[in-house]
Amino acid sequence: DIYVVSELMETDLASILKSPQPLSEEHTQFFIYQILRGLKFVHTAGIIHRDLKPRNLLVNSNCDLKICDYGLARMNSSTPMT
Predict the structure, then answer these.
(1) Catalytic residue among 1, 12, 51, 64
(2) What are the mean pLDDT values of the chain's consecutive 10-residue runs (82 residues total)?
(3) What are the residue boundaries of the Protein kinase domain, all occurrences included (predicted)?
């Protein structure tokens, strides 16, 4: 048997943006910072996501953000494999 265990992510950014409660400037900056760090990481690894949208950005109770749904992702052919 194979089991996949992952961190619990309570919601996604799309649900947060649709919420009647406005995001503070600090939360907005924190989310943007995490998105940029995540994209830098995957792009450095030679991966292009190709389906980045609020629904594919999961958020937990600590406001930690994770990029998900790599179904359309491709390897960047110009990035050398090491």
Answers:
(1) 51
(2) 93 97 96 98 96 98 96 84 58
(3) 1-82
Q: What is the pLDDT of residue 80?
A: 62
How far, in Å, CA of 17 to CA of 46, rounded?
Answer: 29
User: Is 69 known to be catalytic?
Assistant: no
- How many domains does the chain contain in total? 1
Q: What is the pLDDT of residue 12?
A: 98
2: in domain: no
Burial 44-77 (b: 16+ CB within 10 A, else e): eeebbbeebeeebbbbeeeeebebeeeeeeeeee
Is position 6 within any domain? no
CATH number at residue 44: 1.10.510.10
